[in-house]
Amino acid sequence: MIEMQDVWKEYANGVSALSAVSVSIKQGEFVYVVGPSGAGKSTFIKLMYREERPTRGSIFVGGFNIERLRERQIPVMRRHIGVVFQDYKLLQKMTVAENVAFALEVIEVSRRTIHKRVTEVLELVGLSEKAHMFPRQLSGGEQQRVGVARALVNKPSVIIADEPTGNLDPENSWSILKLFERVNDRGTTIVMATHNREIVNAAKKRVLAIEAGRIMRDQERGEYGYED
Amino acid sequence: MKIRTIGRHTREGFKNLFRNGWMTFAAVSAVAVTLFILGGAMILSLNVQNISVNIESQLQVNAYVSSSYPQKHLSTLEASLRSLPGVRSVSFISKDQALKKMEKLLQSNADLLNGIGNPLPDEFVLQAKDPHQTAMIANEVRLTPGIDKVQYGQSVIGKLFTVTTAIRDAAVVFIIALLVMGIFLISNTIKITIFTRRREIEIMKLVGATDGFIRGPFFVEGTLMGLFGAVLPLAALYVLYRWLVQSVPLFPPFSLLPWASVLDKVVITLIACGVFIGIWGSVISMRKFLRV
């Protein structure tokens, strides 16, 4: 599903973010990516949907060779991946329903299908009542649920999340987690970078620990393992 | 692109206009103010040109028939003048008519003319098709047998053309300068309004929208802003100009053109400029934000 082979990333300012990273993630896995701030978690995540490009190495996600992708194919690739961001990245000028619908509009689905899918997925994340509100009228937890709904609405085979609970209180964090687990139960691969020790330790899933740009630990049923 | 996507872009474009209220207001007013000045300058220069054409068209050649020329051949002479190249019209003023004119002019002093008979010659008045050819035609006329003397305002004609040509050139330069300035000002305003939306564009790209898809609503929005920005000054100019025509007393050759004869040029120019600037400003200035 996701395959990284000897990936290096050095930023233009000389900062070396990732060194010799090789990872293989299978369809249906739930993987936590942990590590200290600045260790390269975000870079690792961003490489997967090509917000950043590796300096060296190759990356495959869901059958796309990310590095060889032509400019025009980038949007096509991104439609097969659901991305959830720490800062939600919602379109402030659109309602909840329109934000979710946007991911379907870009693939030019009929309005009926859009309506049907948006209703379904908003029900799944428990926001049916707030469909016509704007993001600024929602709490942080609700906004992130919109973010998750948008990531799910395309039925992607993989969800990539960069500290999705980073701005949320424990209760909201758990509700996002519950959502991810339900989605994962249906066979969707989930890769989630996080700082949330409780969640990682409770989940007993695969844990990738990144430190100083290298994968230091890759553990099934792993623990968070840092004292923060 | 599917039809439904075009529909979607149109809906979004309209929605964006309202949801970005103040930004739309800023961009539309920048376009409107610039186009108002441009339209005003156009109307002014059209009128100045019209007046200069009016003045030029009053140039005429007065050809006096020699007193020895037989009266019965006057019509042949008129025909030969009419056949000169570049002549638009020839009219005849007989010596009797000229005398009556003179008496009118002298009014109470008309009795001065008593006793001296009629000293005035018969006269042809010619107008050139192109006022600039007046001097040339005058020379041709002078060589026509039967014509004694020719007058055409030799001393002022050169100066007049220098002035009218200068006014027209200045008007053109002025309008072009205004256009360039306006485009610069407006595209800057629109750039700023789009800059505030770069986050929005970035998000759209991360969710898998193609550049074209993101541009769609911006395109619609830009067109609409340009249209509004052109219609507003057009309405204002119409009201102002109508008031001006009605309330400012002028007499020929200094007359204002009727609104109908400036209408087409001004409307076409303003709307074309507005729409072009709107689209160009929106679509071009968002380009760099699309690289995500």
Note the topology.
The complex is a heterodimer of chains A (228) and B (292).
Chain A: E1 2-10, E2 16-25, E3 30-34, H1 41-48, E4 56-61, E5 64-65, H2 74-78, E6 81-84, H3 96-105, H4 111-124, H5 140-152, E7 158-162, H6 170-185, E8 189-193, H7 197-203, E9 206-211, E10 214-219
Parallel strand pairs in A: 3-8, 3-9, 6-7, 7-8
Antiparallel strand pairs in A: 1-2, 1-4, 4-5, 9-10
Helix pairs in contact in A: 3-4, 3-5, 4-5, 5-6
Chain B: H1 3-19, H2 21-57, E1 61-65, H3 74-82, E2 87-93, H4 95-106, E3 123-128, H5 134-143, E4 147-151, H6 154-195, H7 198-206, H8 211-247, H9 259-285
Antiparallel strand pairs in B: 1-3, 1-4, 2-3
Helix pairs in contact in B: 1-8, 2-6, 2-8, 2-9, 6-9, 8-9
Q: What do you see in this structure?
A:
- The complex is a heterodimer of chains A (228) and B (292).
- Chain A has 228 residues and is an alpha/beta fold.
- Chain A has seven helices and ten strands.
- The longest helix of chain A has 16 residues, at 170-185.
- The mean pLDDT of chain A is 92.
- In chain B, helix 2 runs antiparallel to helix 6, helix 2 crosses helix 8 (211-247) and helix 6 runs parallel beside helix 9.
- Classes of the chains: A alpha/beta (228), B alpha+beta (292).
- Chains A and B meet through helix 2 and helix 3 of A and helix 1 and helix 7 of B.
